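Workshop exercise sheet. Pairs work together: one partner reads the sequence aloud, the other fills in the structure field after running the prediction. Swap roles for the next sheet.
Pair: D.N. / O.F.
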Amino acid sequence: MAPIPERDAIGLIHAPMGRDAQIAVALLEEAGLPGKTAPTLDALVAGLNENVAFAVMTEEALRSVDLRPFVSWIETQPSWSDLPFIILTARGGGPERNPAAARLSEVLGNVSFVERPFHPTTFISVARSAMRARRRQYEASARMEALDEGERRLQTALDAGRLGAWELDIATNVLTTSATCRGIFGRGPDDSFTYEDLLQSIHPEDVERMQEAVRKTLETGVDYAIAYRTVWPDGSIHGAEIRAQLHRDRTGHPIKLVGVSADITERLQAEEQQRRLHEMLEERVAERTRELQEAHRLVLAEVSQRERAEEQLRQAQKMEAIGQLTGGVAHDFNNLLMAVLGNLELLRKHVVGDAKATRLIDGALQGAQRGASLTQRLLAFARRQDLQVGPVNLAGLVTEMEDLLKRSVGSRIAIEVAVPERLPPVSADANQVELALLNLAVNARDAMPDGGTIRIELKEAEQPAVEDTLAPGRYVVLSVIDEGQGMDAETLQKAVEPFFSTKALGKGTGLGLSMVHGLALQLDGRLKLQSAPGQGTTAELWIPVSTADVQDQAQDVAPAGPRDDAGPKRILLVDDDVLIAMSSADMLSDLGHQVVEAHSGKEALALIDGGATFDLLITDYSMPGMTGAELVKAARDRVPGLPILLASGYADLPSGVELDVARLAKPYSQDQLASAIDKML
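Structure field:
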């Protein structure tokens, strides 16, 4: 319920005897507080609506009358409401000396007494205090409604992502779970599920690992994140992924774990199937190798070459399969994060002034943004992140990052940079290359716990012939060299695999090198690693030389002129996911635009064919029935000049799809959405 506006707030006056009512109304209006009289007590009760800020009554008007309707209204007020009453008493008739007046305090609750004859200043002061108190009640009601709405939206997001919520009291081990959470462990919505039940439902081989993760979270405060197998009451094996954060009291003492759970049975089954396929492939390769060795005993050079080729093929097939699985999961998670981030960002605007609500929302935003960062790394490994490829001055990029790199690695690590005077521009995404360099520098720092030197070098190189996936041509090589512990051959072979890490649990995601590897392949380059135990590591990022000139391209950009199309726009928003559509529509409406939603390409075209006009079309790419690409072509046939923005969690469109439209990667913030619209219009 919104606070009562200043112009609508009134004081309701019941003083049927003498001129008290007229005097009270005149004084209130002179002070800018509108007043209204109620000739009878029934009229007073009937007039107690949302605009009434306080009520003024004379003590004698309440004598010898039936107060039951009045008392009933007072007792049935909402929990947040406590309407202020001002009682005008006779001289010497205050509650201290007047038992009848004192009893009115018990009946009415929120009462102020003013003895007559009263000074106008005293009466107005009491009235203003009552008005302020009433407004604070309405503001409290509005904040409670906003918080309730935020909880409902958060629950919607959890339901959409099929995430179960849970909470564990550290002191008592009392576990509180949602119905979805209990379902992930094979329980019904109404079944009891205690912490002891949880421990018994975990696969015996995974219990110790789970308890160790809980212990580490309680000791260090690191986020609790683990995946393990579960055994349902029917004996079937399933999978659960659990994530949580530790809450502490004001003294810093841990009090509870609060988190979510997800069913990953299908993922575990897919991983098991992939493992079996790998084993089968390895057996076949081993069998073929033995046959080759037997047939060509006098030739272990030809056999060695064949072994290398088969190993590279096997590794490529394995990485491609993992990449496809990773990219699909990241895309779906991006959509879920889109709804969570959008709703939280808008919700934060409605709790301004409420420090606790703002802190809780900020915490949720940080968690969701960390999830978004993780999906971007997954997409980078799968070679599906959105790249803005153009000519990049790599020497300038490294030089400008030197201060950032020094701050990132700490005072115990020295940074040396060797950059030639002249280097050709490379074809790359500057932001992604900066992130790759930062990842390589942080990895080098972690390999030198006792300190050391990181050397960053740039050089131009020529690739004369095809080597693995690296095509012939000119390249600029970015090298990051450390003096750290180094890696043996087995570790080096797995270094770019996703989630593989030699760091302690909780110290890294295992996605740094895989992200750099995916970026290099997406840029038609290569990440090369050289390392040996005790001899440090050299990471080389080979990036193709650009055929365009950095400076020439910058000159083609015309300065921005004054805009003549400012103001709200009429936007057609198309997304088959209702939750995402609702979140995006709310963000657009909050920016002042008029939004029309459609949940399929067919529905969008029906609106256009029906005569509706729009300033901008925003559409998702992956939709059933009609893809975003098909909708773009159909819409352009109908309205050739219509600006179109394509939003998607995938970066690369299928082969053969060429679209001249603006692109926006999911998940996006309201600021990113506004910036994209501004650039287009």
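Discussion prompt: Confidence is low (pLDDT under 50) at residues 504-510, 551-564. What would you look at next?
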